[in-house]
Amino acid sequence: MESQQSRVLVQLRDMILKGEFAPGERLAEIPVSERLQASRTPVRLALASLEHEGLIEQSPSGGYQMRRFTSQEVADAIRVRGLLEGFAARLLAENGAPRQLLRELHDVLEDGDKVVNKDNMDLDDYAAYVEMNDRFHQLIVDGCGNVMIKRVMDMLNGQPFAAASAMLPMQSSMEEGHQWMKQAHRTHHALLQAIERSQGSRAQALGEEHVEIARMNLDYALDKPELAAKIMPGIKLVADAVRSRS
């Protein structure tokens, strides 16, 4: 069930980020299940996850509806996430990460290596990368020992496009998206290396830099939305949402 839920979540998130649902449009469990040819349980769980991410909200008439938001909300949340994750990585580097945590981080990155180093990535590979990416970031936040960082990160994960995997590009035929994921994964390895070498300043800088790709993609989408949609389809909805409010 978990694997099926991951696939449905990836498909739904990608449809949302490509702008296939208009801001305010209703998303009901049965029509979505029929559209994806999936059972209702994984769809129900996926919709709940998307609500937590802030991409959709409960509809007064039942089910969910697309949420309206601004580019400034997205940019602010991304920047704050970078600061928090960078600080969490610094704490691990300076305080010393437990061996068990380091083993888990290495295992997670090896899982990521298996999918990003393929010549082409399919839907299952993409879902696996998303799970790996979420797990890597969560391990750092949970392992840093700072309860307030965890609390604020939980709040940020409920903001549109602020979660660690919310702006990952849909791979498939998009070579640029695949290369973006390779670059992001190289940063994962560099970040873990800085933690292991007790390089606090470097770990913090890498954590903050890691989210800059998402922020720059946001700026690019607002400046050239149609071209950006071809390179990183997932961010087209941000520009569409902003134009709908102007």
Automatic annotation (TrEMBL):
Official protein name in the record: GntR family transcriptional regulator
Keyword DNA-binding: yes
SMART domains given in the database record: FCD (SM00895), HTH_GNTR (SM00345)
GO molecular function terms listed in the Swiss-Prot or TrEMBL record: DNA binding; DNA-binding transcription factor activity
Signal peptide: none
Keywords: DNA-binding, Transcription, Transcription regulation
Residue ranges of every copy of the HTH gntR-type domain listed in the record: 2-69
Coiled-coil boundaries: none
